[in-house]
Amino acid sequence: MAKLKTTAAEMVAKARSGIREIETPDLIEMVGDENVVIVDIRDVRERQRGGFIPGSFHAPRGMIEFWIDPASPYFKPIFGEDKKFIFHCASGWRSALTVQTLQNMGFDAAHLREGFSTWQAQGGPVEKPE
């Protein structure tokens, strides 16, 4: 196998250096704030297995660029609202890359630095699917 020019870890580190990162306790305080949209980009199976942040909006990572773009046929109106958007995945890697991409598109967003992996351990509420 050929050696990669850039590793995933290097890409995440670069992304993190240029985006806003939210710490878990700070996001816990924002749960239920009507001016904040917590966007879960994990796979649907991850949400089913481990639960999710109550009130979070599920937006699969593979569609996010299309869902936030008003010119796209896949645009979701929630992303046109004047709110604070905070994205998360399981460990903060996918969401860092996602937020970097969205910022490059001109969309203002932040991400949960540690992801959902430490959410419950740090006192974050979790809702389980029915």
Which descriptors would you attach to this protein?
alpha/beta, Oxidized Rhodanese, domain 1, 130 residues, five-stranded parallel β-sheet
Give the N-terminus to C-terminus distance in angstroms. Answer: 44 Å
Number of domains: 1
Structural class: alpha/beta
CATH superfamily: Rhodanese-like domain
The count of β-strands is 5
Q: What is the residue-mean pLDDT, rounded to a whole number?
A: 96
CATH class: Alpha Beta
In N-to-C order, the SSE pattern is HEHEHEHEHE
Radius of gyration: 15 Å
* Level-2 CATH architecture: 3-Layer(aba) Sandwich
Strand order within the widest beta sheet = 1-5-4-2-3
| Largest sheet composition | 5 strands, parallel
Describe the secondary-structure layout:
Layout: H1 8-16, E1 20-22, H2 24-30, E2 36-40, H3 44-50, E3 57-58, H4 64-68, E4 84-88, H5 93-105, E5 110-112
Parallel strand pairs: 1-5, 2-3, 2-4, 4-5
Descriptive report:
The chain contains 5 helices and 5 strands. The chain is of the alpha/beta class and 130 residues long. The chain has a single domain (21-118), classed as 3-Layer(aba) Sandwich (Oxidized Rhodanese, domain 1). It is globular. 29% of the residues are buried. The mean pLDDT is 96.
